[in-house]
Design brief:
This protein has four helices and 19 strands. It has a 16-stranded antiparallel barrel with strand order 1-2-3-4-5-6-7-8-9-10-11-12-13-14-15-18. The chain has a two-stranded antiparallel sheet with strand order 16-17. By secondary structure, it is mostly beta strands. It starts with 6 loop residues before the first helix and ends with a strand. The longest helix is centred in the first third of the chain and has 12 residues.
Length: 361
């Protein structure tokens, strides 16, 4: 979409911005340290098929970021810079085409987004921002499980482009995105992708969501179509259940149609004011290796389950411990110098969130 198309929106926004009160500026930081033990004891110390708690038998930083946010009735924005092993793992696929692209700089930008309200119920934001796909956050603090499901790790955590967010009613919110592609800051082809999301608060205890993606992907420019359904159920104040189901398809070289999909269910039960038990089961299937290529017959076909204990203190400290088990159709998990159909991991994390009080600027 040519930039000139946004001129009417900016002209409409100008008088609104002029009427706003001084925006509130907040500063913050997050530090997530961890130790993980993988039963396969990979020789490289890199745990397979994950971005979170990615190093075996090593104390390290999963994610650390500093942030500044701006919020008012008419404008909003966030700048967050980051580092950590999850950052190295997640941004390794950033395209390097030309001399001014690639992960060396891009991976340190968690978000750099500016937004303006162009109508009472309509915001337009542009920049690098968190993806519209999925229920699990890039930031571990905001998730019931410490490690991420395959559903989260193999859908975009971030996007680069422009989005419109419309609060259609007190119960329905819709988003429309024009972005570079499937989780990339630098471009890898001449096309752009579109995304959409709708969230519906059906009632006080139940909500539904739908997210989609349509774009041209390398290596052959095939169209990738992805659809996701999400549900959240809170039967009482101490229990929350999240469910996600998704499916994707695109043409491979030679015209063959490839598909993949997953189902994830996560439950969190409050044990006390500061502690909770989190359980997860999931199934991920990518037989054609579109997102997760593996060198075994039947492709990536994995069932996983996890259980974790979360302790959240009011001071912003979290201590989390999680055990996770994996079973695959073929021998894909590192097992020393060999491979196995089974794997397991134990992870513990101590994190700290720092926030100041908003101040007018």
């Amino acid at each position: 979409m040519r930039s000139m198309r946004f001129v009417p929106l900016l002209l409409l926004a100008a008088p609104l911005v002029g009427q706003q009160q001084a925006p509130q500026v907040s500063l913050g930081a997050f530090i997530d340290s961890y130790y993980a033990w993988d039963t396969g004891q990979p020789l490289s110390f890199d745990r397979a098929f994950t971005t979170q708690a990615v190093r075996h038998n090593e104390f390290n930083i999963n994610l650390a970021h500093i942030e500044a946010t701006v919020a008012s009735e008419r404008v909003r924005g966030r700048l967050a810079l980051q580092a950590g092993t999850s950052v190295q793992a997640n941004y390794a696929g950033e395209p390097t085409i030309g001399s001014n692209s690639g992960p060396s700089l891009a991976r340190h930008i968690q978000e750099a987004v500016a937004g303006v309200r162009v109508a009472p119920a309509l915001w337009v934001d542009a920049g690098i921002y968190f993806s519209h796909i999925g229920q699990e956050s890039w930031i571990s603090r905001d998730n019931p499980t410490y490690t991420r499901s395959f559903t989260a790790d193999y859908t975009p955590y971030y996007s680069t482009g422009v989005k419109a967010t419309w609060a259609a009613s007190s119960k329905v919110t819709a988003q429309l995105h024009l972005i570079n592609g499937w989780q990339n800051i630098s471009e890898n082809n001449s096309g752009k992708a579109v995304g959409a999301r709708i969230d519906w608060a059906v009632g006080p205890k139940f909500s539904l969501g739908w997210a989609s993606y349509l774009g041209s992907e390398p290596p052959d420019g095939a169209t990738r179509n992805f659809q996701q359904l999400m549900a959240t159920w809170r039967p009482d104040s101490g229990l929350t259940i999240w469910a996600t189901a998704d499916a994707g398809w695109q043409r491979l070289n030679g015209g063959r149609r490839a598909t993949w999909g997953s189902v994830t269910i996560i439950g969190e039960a409050r044990l006390s004011a500061t502690s909770a038990l989190a359980l997860r089961v999931e199934r991920y299937l990518d037989r054609d290796g579109v997102l997760i290529p593996v060198a075994v017959a039947g492709g990536f076909d994995v069932t996983s389950a996890s259980a974790g204990l979360n302790v959240r203190l009011p001071e912003g400290v979290q201590w989390r411990t999680e055990g996770r088990w994996y079973r695959s159709g073929g021998a894909i998990w590192p097992d020393g110098a060999a491979t196995s159909r089974n794997s397991a991991a134990l992870v513990t994390s101590l994190s700290l969130t720092l926030r100041d009080h908003p101040s007018g600027q």
